[in-house]
Here is the input.
Amino acid sequence: QVQLVESGGGLVQAGGSLRLSCAASGRTYNRYAMGWFRQAPAKEREFVAAISRTGRSTYYADSVKGRFTVSRDNAKNTVYLQMDSLKPEDTAVYYCAASPRVGGGVINEYDYWGQGTQVTVSS
Here is the structure.
């Protein structure tokens, strides 16, 4: 089992940057593909970015491609989401998730979820 704790959210102006972190417990962290999802008020949770177990493969939603970068440090049991050129429509609660399978952009692939961190982008 994996426990996930996100941090790094906050309030930022449009065009600014934030870096989210997700710390994972457990010695088997590197067996999990990791993903970032977000949920805005009155909207369904949606895929943002994902990274494979080794970090060699990454995946992005079209809406964030070229602005967000996902990475992981398996020695620190941590996955990151660097968010640049933020827009008001990026405002949401951001969740990290772990998948013992391929993961990718499929929400049902993920078995473990963090509690979420709020990101608010002002215009």
Notes: The mean pLDDT is 95. The two ends are 40 Å apart (CA to CA).
